[in-house]
Design goal:
The protein is of the alpha/beta class. It is 30% helix and 22% strand.
Length: 248
């Protein structure tokens, strides 16, 4: 099985412009963190960065000689830009799996990714983890997943779902919630046969909902991931502090 890794990057985020390069953990841009953990995944045959930003191209080509940069149009989401990159060069279609890595989730463990099942049942697989604390659970930046008993996604929301009857219950039952980690694994068959799926409107600005609404079977795989994504400038210091604390 041949696997293509794609990191889609754009710098025009409305909440945090130039986030991929300006947001830094331990003085390293978050894009660098994502590239370096992806490079240590043992089943990737090729890693590319998909972008239309010259600053991103320059950073990658200067610092990571083994990573290819592919120019793409904007796309309507990270996975859409990855899909456009997959179709950009004909030889990319030889890969059996396309795995996308979100640039705003820089501290995912490559050891956890290396444990994933690439032969999952369904069309797409994406990741989840338990919430680290109540603050992460109630944050509007974090995505909560409703799933079937056999771990297929039904819906995602920024709201706390299922809604607890009281705030204390959300703390006591924190482990019942699934927090989405935005790594996706796409099977080649889905990429070839479901071109219209990316045109479906996103619910709550969450791209995974478009796949569920389009009829795809999205298999969930759990990982250990005590960190969170960078949504705004305030998140950078909080994420760095947690990283330092957990590494001690």
């Amino acid at each position: 099985m041949k696997c293509l890794g794609v990191i889609p990057v754009r710098l025009e985020s409305s909440r945090y412009l130039n986030k991929a390069l300006e947001a830094k953990i331990m003085l390293k841009p978050i894009l660098g963190w994502v590239i370096e953990y992806a490079q240590r995944i043992n089943f990737l045959d090729k890693l590319i960065v998909a972008t239309n930003d010259n600053a991103v191209k320059y950073y990658v080509l200067k610092n990571y000689k083994d990573v290819e940069v592919v120019s793409t149009t904007r796309g309507n989401s990270g996975t859409h830009r990855a899909y456009l990159a997959y179709n950009y060069k004909r030889f990319y279609k030889k890969y059996d799996r396309m795995i996308t890595f979100p640039v705003d989730e820089p501290l995912v463990s490559y050891n956890e990714i290396n444990k994933l099942d690439l032969n999952f049942k369904g069309d797409i697989s994406t990741l989840y983890t338990n919430f680290f604390n109540r603050e992460d659970l109630t944050s509007k930046s974090s995505c909560k997943i409703v799933s079937t008993i056999d771990n297929y996604m039904l819906y995602s929301s920024r709201a706390v779902i299922p809604s607890p009857p009281s705030e204390s219950d959300s703390l006591l039952q924190i482990l019942i919630y699934k927090k989405h980690v935005g790594v996706f694994i796409f099977k080649k068959k889905f990429l070839v046969n479901n071109k219209g799926c990316w045109a479906i409107s996103e619910n709550e600005s969450l791209e995974q909902n478009k796949f569920v609404l389009g009829g795809a079977k999205v298999k969930l795989q759990g990982i250990n991931h005590p960190y969170f994504g960078v949504d705004n400038k305030e998140d950078v210091k909080k994420l760095e502090d947690r990283y330092v604390k957990l590494m001690v």
